[in-house]
Design goal:
The protein is α+β, with helices and mostly antiparallel strands and 360 residues long. The chain contains 6 helices and 23 strands.
Amino acid sequence: MIYKIQMKKDDYFKISNKIISSNLSINDDEVTFEIEGGSYNILKRTNYEFKVIESLRSKILRFLSRYGLLITGILFLISILYMNIYRVKGIEFNRATPINAAIEYRLKSAYRRLFCFDFCSLDYQDFSKKMQREYFEYPFINVEAKNNVIHVYIADIDEANYKVETPLDGNIVARKDGVVDVFYVYAGKSVISKNKYVREGDLLIEGNSQVRGLVMATTYDKMEIEIAKKSKEEHLTEENSNYFTLSLFSLNFSLGKKTSFDLYTQNEKMVFNLFDFFSLKKIAETKKNAIIKTYSQDEAIVLAKEKIEEDFKAHQNNNLEKVIAITNTKVNETEDSYIFTFIVKKYESIGAFLPRSDVN
């Protein structure tokens, strides 16, 4: 630490050979200079009078030397408390719906990992409004964090008290042809009725400052599905390889890897992560074997129908939606595949939001 000293000129020159000083200035009978801690202790042991002139820098350094450790501890504690506000232990839904997985995926995509904890700094109010705009078939969607758990509330489509809070200025129109069965209007005015046939683009629910609703209808789609006559199926074996990967500034290093597989499945578990530039992961690889399988026409039809069902479920927005029937109408066979034509009867939501700016 540097001390700024002021003393009589005569006294200074008497002890100047005993101390190391710098930035010396003489003003009449007084001298001002700077010394470090060792020389300061020598000066204190003399009988000469002097005065310590504290600059802002020296005051700060003295304060930090006395209370630096305490300040560091307090700042660390405040940082931990602040970070804990955004720490996430999990996501909980009030009920099971087809859109749970999509919302959970979007939430987890906003996670940031530090050490072994997940953090999320989303504006949950804005995120809730975005989900309400996207899934307007539901009366109300709310996302909030309590006690480090993200709670997602999705109102049931037949709840009596609707909570319409997100303005959707526009109309709900038909995205495809269908025969209307049931409809729920949470905001706006219905212009349809049960058993009414509507075409793509027809007005279903007319909005004013807000529009929200669900229109269920029976629809028919012509679909063409191609199934290869041969496919490669992968099966897990009991052979495993466990090791760690160290990531440092985008460079990856394998630690303890003894076996390599040509075909495998991999599971990763984060052990340590420091702001994404230094991380340690535990890797578990399981070897897979490839088996070539040949399909008959009947087996291919089964696979084609399963593909239709899986695709429908992947885009399902509510629990009312379902595939009613799948009818095969045509089969074309090539050297490598079967091409099936189906008529698919569905019970699904046909509403699409059309913003006011797009309304002619």
